[in-house]
Write a structure and sequence with these properties.
mainly alpha, 2 domains, 4 helices, about 70% helix, about 0% strand
């Protein structure tokens, strides 16, 4: 039963992320009739921002709950500003142009953002220390 609970919580978390991204794709396509290929990269930038800010705030001695709240709120603001800027620079000037030019612009923005994060964060695996307290139900399954 313990293993099932871990699988259930892990699957629910991952499924929630997939649903959130799918909802964003649907809303963007429904409003501007353009598939925004950089949509996932905006989520990635928000995630990295929360991770970096969380580590910075926690290493400065802030309590865990405040660190989580502050890092999530600031990463939401940063990712939204990033998305707004991309829309203003890359998509809005192409609204009245042929649809293929906007699609090419979306692919280009996606590639630029992927490489930006790759250069800024490195492609190597870097372990990040856990600042959350240890919970027995979050430990890996052992037979």
């Amino acid at each position: 039963m313990d293993y099932f609970l871990k699988l259930f919580l892990s699957g629910t978390a991952k499924g929630s992320i997939y649903a959130l991204i799918a909802l964003g794709y649907t809303m963007v396509y429904g409003i501007i009739q353009l598939i925004n290929f950089a949509h996932g990269e905006i989520y990635m930038i928000g995630g990295f921002t929360a991770l970096i800010l969380g580590g910075f705030f926690f290493s400065n001695g802030m309590p865990v709950g405040f660190v989580l709240l502050l890092s999530v709120l600031l990463s939401i603001v940063y990712a939204a500003a990033f998305g707004f800027t991309i829309e203003k620079i890359a998509y809005r000037p192409l609204r009245e142009k042929p649809r293929l030019s906007a699609l090419i612009s979306a692919i280009g923005v996606s590639i630029v953002l992927q490489n930006f994060v790759l250069l800024a964060q490195t492609e190597k695996f870097l372990p990040f220390p856990s600042y959350l307290p240890e919970f027995s139900w979050l430990q890996p399954y052992k037979e």
